């Protein structure tokens, strides 16, 4: 099962038929780059943008969590901004800024923001969402005078946002696909865009050709932790799952990766139920589908990103739900590069 169209992977008749629309998309990119200018921050701070040039599922959120943990260990004061994809606030035309707290709802601010809050609250990292990320950045800078660094979850194409450091993530199962822009291919910007960043990061020791010598490439490693119960966060041993019927439910961009990860640790999944990326798993319609689909299963497995959207699930569903943690490990060399640039640049 693949969560992206087959014609994105290689050139074929469909991608060629869609190519004229990709030329229109390219024109829009050129015009946006020409006429949208970065707005000023209300006070000095450093901006790191973690983004991608292909559509979704490149590991941005867990990478940001790992970066925040490492930079916090160095004593830096950090905040995170996001657009809040999947939340109701993102779908309105106003530019409301919403700061994230422990009681914030994924239905309003999106699953990524809530996952960030769950993982980073103990580090006192402030998080805000807004359709226009520059507004979220200035909101946090005005409210918290000790913030030194703002990390943007996505936003590579949000040209209103100034930036000091761009980290582009590239997924190993797609890379650049057929090298065409949307909708004929998976690219949000031309492949040459990677040479405008300070660094790119890949997984599984994937090497990217065509990089300028000054662009640094790093390999990020992933780690799947022990499953834990949704209701009390207690770990579940793999032996407890033997001979049990398991359904994997997900609304992330590349759910097949989680399925592959479970197979590698010999956890057998009997059925999958995949929804579109950022889908609300607690809507009446989806909750009914989930309840019916999981009736005859002993366990439900969710990603941590999906687990933040279970606030309206019945207790019966929650009791048999297990969560699979997904962590990214940042190489020391990448942190050194970030620190070098931040010491040498004036905002």
Textual characterization of the structure:
The chain has 347 residues and is of the alpha/beta class. It folds into 2 domains: 13-221 and 328-344, Rossmann fold, CATH 3.40.50; 226-324, Rossmann fold (3-Layer(aba) Sandwich). It has helices at 13-35, 60-73, 106-109, 111-120, 133-143, 255-264, 284-293, 304-307, 315-319, 332-344; strands at 46-51, 78-82, 98-99, 126-129, 149-153, 165-169, 199-203, 216-224, 228-229, 246-250, 271-274, 299-303, 321-324, 326-329. The strands form 2 sheets. It has a 9-stranded mixed sheet, with helices on both faces. A 5-stranded mixed sheet has the order 9-13-12-10-11. The longest helix is centred in the N-terminal third of the chain and has 23 residues, at 13-35. The chain is globular, with a radius of gyration of 20 Å. The N and C termini lie far apart (45 Å).
Features:
globular, alpha/beta, 10 helices, nine-stranded mixed sheet, five-stranded mixed sheet, 347 residues, single chain, Rossmann fold, 30% helix, 19% strand
Instruction: Using the 3D structure, state the CATH architecture of the largest domain.
Output: 3-Layer(aba) Sandwich
The arrangement of helices and strands along the chain is HEHEEHHEHEEEEEEHEHEHHEEH
CA-based shape = globular
Low-confidence stretches: none
